[in-house]
Design goal:
With about 280 residues, the protein is of the alpha+beta class. Helices cover about 30% and strands about 15% of the residues. A hairpin with a 2-residue loop joins strand 4 and strand 5. GO terms for molecular function: energy transducer activity.
Length: about 280
């Protein structure tokens, strides 16, 4: 009885609810056909599920089974032929003999000799006091002619010579020899090294196959630099000019000295140009 009261879709409830209302609005019709509509919907849903399941099962049963492929007869290939490694033939190429190198002309060489001055030894005995009686002391010893010694008043000293110093040496004089002769930087070995580095054999002399010796004269100044470079012994073929060119490149020498003072010294050296075959 309670359930019947709670059934809102019972026709009696519908009539009671929609009494004196517009039943043509739509809500009345929906509630009236609710049971029929639900039954139809359920039937359609179940029918769809059944049809789909049946169709899937049918389609699966109709799928053809893959048969194994027949590839025909088995073909057996013969084994590959044995390959014998090819012998590598090595060819020995004898190197060509190198052509003999053309000898290069030798550089000019210089034989340098350091001059040595040996002072002359003078054997002079010291005079006795008795020998000094009645004679005049002088620079040299002489017998005289019996005259009396004269006392000479030297008077005031006046200079008439060149520029000198306390030692009496004219420092501007050009000496030919000196107590200590000039010397190039590094001595004979240094001078030989300088010439070997800077001296070039003249092209004209090489073409003509000429060798020669050049004598060069110059002045070693008090500070060691070289001036007045001239050729006193010519060899020609460009060797004279080359000797002068190289001497102008020389560094300062050690100057010559006289009585402990640096002086100007005239100096000469030979420069040999030797062409070797």
């Amino acid at each position: 009885m309670l359930n019947e009261k709670l059934n809102l879709y019972n026709p009696e409830w519908l009539e009671l609810v929609f009494a004196d209302r517009n039943k043509a609005y739509g809500a009345y019709e929906l509630r009236k056909t609710y049971g029929t509509t639900i039954a139809k919907a359920m039937a359609i849903a179940f029918s769809t599920v059944i049809i789909v399941s049946a169709g899937y099962t049918y389609a699966k049963s109709r799928r053809p089974v893959d048969k194994p492929r027949d590839f025909g007869k088995e073909i057996i290939l013969p084994p590959p032929p044995s390959i014998t490694p090819e012998k590598k033939i090595e060819t020995v190429v004898e190197p060509k003999s190198a052509a003999p190198a053309k000898p290069q002309p030798a550089a000019a060489t210089v034989k340098y000799t350091v001059p040595r001055i040996v002072p002359q030894e003078v054997d002079t005995e010291m005079p006795t006091v008795k020998e000094l009686e009645g004679v005049e002391v002088g620079a040299v010893t002489s017998k005289g002619n019996g005259g009396q010694p004269q006392i000479v008043d030297p008077g005031p000293a006046t200079g008439t010579g060149g520029i000198g110093n306390d030692s009496g040496v004219d420092i501007n004089k050009e000496f030919i020899t000196a107590e200590l002769m000039p010397e190039p930087e590094g001595g004979a070995a240094g001078w030989s090294k300088f010439l070997n580095k800077n001296l070039r054999y003249p092209y004209q002399a090489q073409e003509e196959g000429k060798s020669g010796r050049v004598i060069v004269s110059f002045v070693v100044e008090r500070d060691g630099h070289l001036t007045d470079i001239t050729v006193t012994g010519k060899a020609g073929y460009g060797m004279d000019e080359e000797a002068i060119r190289v001497l102008k490149l020389s560094k300062n020498w050690r100057p010559g000295k006289q009585n402990g003072n640096a002086v100007r010294v005239r100096y000469s050296i030979p420069i040999n140009f030797v062409l070797t075959e």
